[in-house]
Amino acid sequence: MAEKLLKFVNLQRAMPDKRASEARRNDFGEIYAEFAAPAATAQASRCSQCGVPFCQVHCPLSNNIPDWLKLTAEGRLEEAYEMSSATNTFPEICGRICPQDRLCEGNCVIEQSGHGTVTIGAIEKYITDTAFDMGWVKAAKPTHERKESVGIIGAGPAGLAAADLLRRRGYQVTVYDRHDRVGGLMIYGIPNFKLEKPIVLRRAELLRESGVTFKTGFEIGRDASLDELRKKHDALLVATGVYKARELQAPGSGAKNIVAALDYLIASNRKGLGDTVPEFESGALDAAGKNVVVIGGGDTAMDCVRTAVRQGAKSVKCLYRRDRANMPGSQREVANAEEEGVEFLWQSLPHSFLDDAQGQVRAVRTTRIHLGPPDATGRQVPTPIEGSDFDVEADLVVKALGFDAEDLPRLFDSPALAVTAAGTIKIDWRTLMTAIPGVFAAGDIVRGASLVVWGIRDGRDAAMSIEKYLSTTSQRAAAE
């Protein structure tokens, strides 16, 4: 079937059709259409099947990308899905929200040679959506049940990936989450225009069908301590993520209508899910008719500016202290935001907030930045330019400055849970176990705020470590 590949020489790169910016500004629907089967097959055929697949090397999950591209090009979609899902718990989600321009596609060999990358993410999405439509995706049915029980704290990407793998091995799995729905930031943090919520909820339903038990609205430290959960389970996995918003310590930061990014996004997503959200109904977390300023340059900032556009903001500006080339967010997301009318003020550093007589924010005082020589990380150091202050009008300011770990030893009533100086959980990197025997940790609560794909990778790794631990414990008990 080699004649079905290596078509990159005479076939141009193409993405699925993207909705016009004027149309997508008015709703929260996903912006890309589905690939038609012939288009997906054709785009997969552009893969060069190179000897060293850098797309796979730079994928956190080491997905077998050339293999499932080849199978797609040959029309063997069910096999392509089996290959894709062998290494990835949620390929349909990664196909939608992974920053492919920084990972697999950004390292595609034919991209480096000037032919344009294979559209890996869109094909991954197409494969899995087709698999769901055709009924190929089934709930896991373990070949045998094991008596050992595993409790997982957190129903985000890491927790769900671990739950899936452990359940497939036959372990009894219970997932605890303080929110009322399963999915973590995939449900409440990522807007619908990137990831529609039924995509996440159908995976949660498959896990339920496989025998995973979910206890939502369950908060460790309130409904049970960590020690109490340890007595109920043979092993625990902490996969809470990081939710504490970083603050901008600046004069005037206490003014009204200066909000954290996650508060803003959760309110919007809850509204989209049909919930009653008092903070949204009051207008406090609704951008409609307002001059909105978002501070930050990561993917969360892009989610915020594009959400504000869809809520009917009067204007949307993004302030970032470095330039476009140095921003951490996906360049694809920046381009989408620009198309939708977002104005980026590069090399702009907010340093204070101005309010009106009612204490409402009215402007962000900002200084222009000069980018100096690179520091140890290789990024240019931002230096304020003296006398360059200017004001940016604002009725709503959203701080998208990143996230830190909450104080879990205190929240979980577990002082023995060791943490790093950054507040993330300290683990033995060989076993992924914390300082407490039988308690493991994975995802953002270990590595810090990161990508969904890294959460999936960490959750799968943790599941394998937990299985090894439980097997060793069982063998020891049998020998005694």
From TrEMBL:
Domain FAD/NAD(P)-binding stretches: 150-454
SUPFAM superfamilies per UniProt: alpha-helical ferredoxin (SSF46548), Nucleotide-binding domain (SSF51971)
Stretches assigned to the Dihydroprymidine dehydrogenase domain: 25-135
Source organism superkingdom: Bacteria
Key words of the record: 4Fe-4S, Iron, Iron-sulfur, Metal-binding, Oxidoreductase
InterPro entries: DPD_II, FAD/NAD-bd_sf, FAD/NAD-binding_dom, GltD-like, Helical_ferredxn
Pfam families for this protein: Fer4_20, Pyr_redox_2
PANTHER family the record matches: GLUTAMATE SYNTHASE [NADPH] SMALL CHAIN (PTHR42783), GLUTAMATE SYNTHASE [NADPH] SMALL CHAIN-RELATED (PTHR42783:SF3)
Protein name in the entry: NAD(P)-dependent oxidoreductase
